[in-house]
Each structure stands twice: as structure tokens, then as C-alpha cells.
Design brief:
Distance between the termini: 44 Å
Number of domains: 4
Radius of gyration: 26 Å
Number of strands: 10
Shape: globular
Helix content: 40-55%
Structural class: alpha+beta
CATH topology of the largest domain: Aspartate Aminotransferase, domain 1
CATH architecture of the largest domain: Alpha-Beta Complex
Order of helices and strands: HHHEEHHHHHEHEEHEHHHEEHEEH
Largest sheet: 4 strands, mixed
Strand content: 5-15%
CATH superfamily of the largest domain: Aspartate Aminotransferase, domain 1
Number of helices: 15
């Protein structure tokens, strides 16, 4: 039987009644693909089920079933009096699935790549990274994000402007690789008081965030092919930094006391480096080799921000902000822990450490944490599956709940939505 295309005023949607796939399913796939590809923009209004059915020459039941499925999965949203539109905040997992499928399709093609890439780049592409999807700000329980709305932006802007006017001209030349000395003094003084770390400014190197520090350390300490122990599950940033220098990773499980050292010794006693996250860290000062490496990476970080941060610390703004954040984070952690245990205590075993900006809800053995995260995403909740950060299978899955960037008013509704799922 020859294929028969349903006549339509929308040539981009072609339905084939001769296929074994139901028409509503074909329409669902066409619309879903158009949304993920960006052909249907977020917030775009769609025709009513009756109008679309008339244009496509199908029953209204066909279009209604397709719309219903897309609504359930979070691709569409519908409000009384406003009709149906593409969801403005697509779950990150939906976009990630589309990206992964696109990558798989490209990998299946036999086209010769135009650029020869280092083999370790492929490994880096497999490292999970928490993508920030445009328009998804404010989603409940996103991990790795502080309370950005509580930062003193006005103070920071004033300090930046003052330094730009008064100091930048005299510091526009290249700076020492270790960074702006007054800022290193301020940091040494701060950690000496708050952390009990005995350190002088000459032992401080300024980097562009923790990832810059990890990159600098592994470049200096490891040769390609040498072995590093990595906590399992572990921080994706450390995993990426190690892979970037060609290290061989040996996953080592963690327990309530941290990294299981004896297991690491059994698996690879000749490891060159251990990547772990202790609660307190006492630097031993690997300084000249680190500086030698730093000079050929990016020389130094931008000077204007270093000068402003110096003032931010010296004038007491940093300590005040830190004290305020500790109070907020403690309240949010306790509230989230209480609500999860009260409403989901039969499903989640909640572990909430005193430090950090997230807690973990461990699922019963046999439960798929990736599937759980996908279901949560459909309800507008962004929780990360623990298995995403693991190099080997775990005995049980879990979900990572970030509470620092979620205000108190959003915690209870978020947990309620999870309970309903």
C-alpha cells in the first residue's frame, strides 16, 4: 500500500496513515522534535486541538492525545484562558537527552572529522557537567549554586567602580603569577583566623575559581598515564581536571569516614595522587613548581577583580556576607531535611552534613536514581542522580538536593511535588 501523506497547511508536519505507528504518536514525535531542535521556541503559542486537527485532516482525538502526552512530559504548558504553549522552562534532562541522542547520531556517521582532537577530549566529553539551561533559573534544589539573590551586589559594584577609577591605570601591566599581593595577604589573614591554617601570603596562589586550582595542581603533579585515586562518587570537576592531563583514574568508594584508603591500596598501591575532599585542609606549600606551571597557562587572573576583592575582605563585607550566608544555609538545610524526612522518609534516607550547600537522599537498593531525577524534572525540580558522578556501579542510588539557592518559601512546595510523584 503506497504511503499517503495527510494534507496539511503546515508542510513541516507530515503524518502517514499507512505506518504502524499511531497518528497521535507521529504528531507527538514531530512536535517534540521541533521543540527540542528550537524550531518551536519556548513560550510559542500552539493552535487549539480543534484547529490543528482541521489543518492536518485528522480527528480531534489525535491532536488531543498528542498534546496530552507533551503536557505530561513537560514540553507544553496550558493555562485557562491562554491556550497551549511550548513550556518556557524545559526540564534540563529533556534537553540533555536530546543532546546525547544527537551526539550518538553524529558518532554513528562515517564522516571523517575535519579536526584532529587529542584522545583525552573524548573522555572529557563523557564527564557529567551541570549545564545551566537558559531560562531555567530559580528551579528548586539545583545543586552547586549559592544564594545569588543575597549577594551584596551594590557594595561589589561600588568597589569595582572605585578601583577602576583610582587604581587600574597603575596596574594595567602584567602581574605576578601568584596574584595581587594585598589580596594574598587578606586571604592568609582570613584563613589563619577562621581555619587555623598557618600560612603566609607567599604561599597563596590566586586562581580563577576551584577548577583553576585543580587544573594547576594536577598539571604540576602528574604526568600523562600516571594513576590517581578518585572518590566514587566524586566531584566531576576533579575528574575532568585529572582526565585533561591524561591521568588514569582508579575509583575508590567512600563511606561515613570519607575515602576508603584500604580499598585504594588494594586496587592500586602505586597511585601517584589522591583526589579527596576532607573537611579541613592544611597546605604544605608546592609553590615554585606551581608558579612555573601557572606562568604558561594564563599568567594571572584579572587584576581589577582582585583589587576589589581585597577591599571587600579588608572592609569587612566578606565576613558579614559569610556570616549571613551561614545562617541562611543552616536554616534552609534544616528545613529541607525536616520536610524530606517527614514526607518522604519511607523512600529517602536523608544525609545532611554540616558543611556544604547540598544534602543527599539515598534511595532504597534497586531504585534507579536517574529515572527518579527525570520524574522530578517533569515537575520542575532539578535534583542530580548520584550515579552520574560515579565511575562504577553503586550499591544504591541517591539524589543530590541543593538548598543554598532555593529560598525557604520554595522548599515546602518542592517537597510536596516530589511527594506527589
Amino acid at each position: 500500500m503506497p504511503k499517503r501523506a495527510i494534507p496539511t497547511d503546515r508542510p513541516e508536519i507530515m503524518l502517514d496513515a499507512s505506518l504502524s505507528v499511531p497518528l497521535y504518536k507521529q504528531l507527538y514525535e514531530r512536535l517534540r522534535g521541533a521543540i527540542l531542535a528550537g524550531q518551536l521556541e519556548r513560550g510559542a503559542r500552539l493552535p487549539s486541538t480543534r484547529q490543528l486537527a482541521s489543518e492536518l485532516g485528522v480527528s480531534r482525538n489525535t491532536t488531543a492525545l498528542a498534546y496530552e502526552q507533551l503536557l505530561l512530559e513537560g514540553y507544553l504548558e496550558s493555562r485557562v484562558g491562554q491556550g497551549t504553549a511550548v513550556a518556557r522552562h524545559l526540564p534540563a534532562t529533556l534537553l540533555r537527552e536530546h543532546t546525547e541522542r544527537t551526539r550518538e547520531k553524529r558518532a554513528d556517521t562515517r564522516e571523517t572529522p575535519s579536526i584532529h582532537l587529542a584522545s583525552r577530549v573524548r573522555l572529557l566529553q563523557e564527564v557529567p557537567y551541570p549545564e545551566r539551561v537558559e531560562g531555567s533559573a530559580g528551579r528548586s534544589f539545583r545543586s552547586g549554586e549559592p544564594a545569588l539573590d543575597l549577594f551584596p551586589y551594590e557594595v561589589w559594584a561600588r568597589l569595582i567602580a572605585r578601583r577602576a577609577r583610582q587604581s587600574l591605570r597603575g596596574f594595567a601591566h602584567y602581574q605576578p603569577a601568584a596574584g595581587y599581593y594585598p589580596l594574598r595577604e587578606a586571604i592568609a589573614a582570613h584563613i589563619g583566623i577562621t581555619r587555623g591554617v598557618r600560612c603566609v601570603p607567599d604561599q597563596v596562589i590566586l586562581t580563577a575559581g576551584s577548577q583553576g586550582a585543580l587544573d594547576l595542581a594536577v598539571r604540576t603533579l602528574l604526568n600523562a598515564g600516571e594513576v590517581a585515586w578518585l572518590e566514587n562518587p566524586g566531584y566531576f570537576g576533579a575528574r575532568g581536571a585529572l582526565l585533561a592531563v591524561g591521568a588514569r583514574l582508579v575509583p575508590v568508594p567512600v563511606d561515613k569516614q570519607g575515602l576508603a584508603v584500604e580499598v585504594g591500596r588494594q586496587r592500586c598501591p602505586e597511585a601517584r595522587l589522591v583526589s579527596t575532599t576532607p573537611s579541613h585542609q592544611f597546605p604544605t606549600g608546592l609553590i615554585e613548581p606551581l608558579l612555573a606551571t601557572r606562568r604558561f597557562i594564563d599568567v594571572h587572573v584579572p587584576i581589577l577583580e582582585q583589587m576589589a576583592l581585597t577591599d571587600f575582605m579588608r572592609e569587612g563585607h566578606f565576613v558579614r556576607h559569610l556570616r549571613r550566608m551561614l545562617q541562611h544555609y543552616s536554616q534552609r538545610r534544616d528545613l529541607l531535611r525536616h520536610e524530606l524526612r517527614a514526607r518522604l522518609g519511607g523512600l529517602l534516607e536523608v544525609h545532611a552534613p554540616e558543611a556544604g550547600m547540598h544534602l543527599v537522599g539515598w534511595l532504597p537498593p534497586g531504585k534507579d536514581d536517574r529515572r527518579a531525577a527525570e520524574l522530578a524534572a517533569q515537575a520542575g525540580i532539578e535534583v542530580a542522580p548520584i550515579s552520574r558522578y560515579s565511575l562504577e556501579p553503586l550499591s544504591r542510588g541517591g539524589l543530590l538536593f541543593g538548598y543554598a539557592g532555593t529560598d525557604e518559601e520554595s522548599i515546602l512546595p518542592g517537597v510536596k511535588r516530589l511527594e506527589q510523584l
